[in-house]
Amino acid sequence: MDRLDHLEHLDKHLVDELAQVARETVRDELREQTRRQRRTAMLYAASGAVALYAGAALALTVGLALAAGLPDWAAALITAAILGAVAYALRGAARPSASRPAPEREAEPAAAGPERVGAPYPPMPPVAPGGAGAATGAPGAGTPAPGGTAPMAPRPDDIDPEQPHHRA
Q: Are 63 and 76 in contact (CB under 8 A)?
């Protein structure tokens, strides 16, 4: 048994040494990756700052060109309107709206039903729960009575995930 106790001590020492080497290796690798990412982030930030100044110079140029034939205040107002329109267009390009399908959904058929695989949300019932006849359990429960005004459930295409989920 003494021999096994001696080997157990060696195993513990070996495991401790291997753990120390692994920690140092991982720490060095993370330090190197962080250094590279920090450099990349600084270059992107510098690029953004230079682009901001280039945009300001372009706006100034447009304003001065317009001021050659218009009063200064009108040139500044037109330049501001142009910049606002560009900002609005860029915002619209960055944020998908409910009226236009996202690029990955354009290829899907418009009448794709609940059998569609990978739907981001479960299929919606044709009417809101608790419609006419819902409490009776009668056939057609949850469907509005003929001529009824039960509210229709929203269609999946009408739901905007960026809007609040409560009703006012």
A: yes
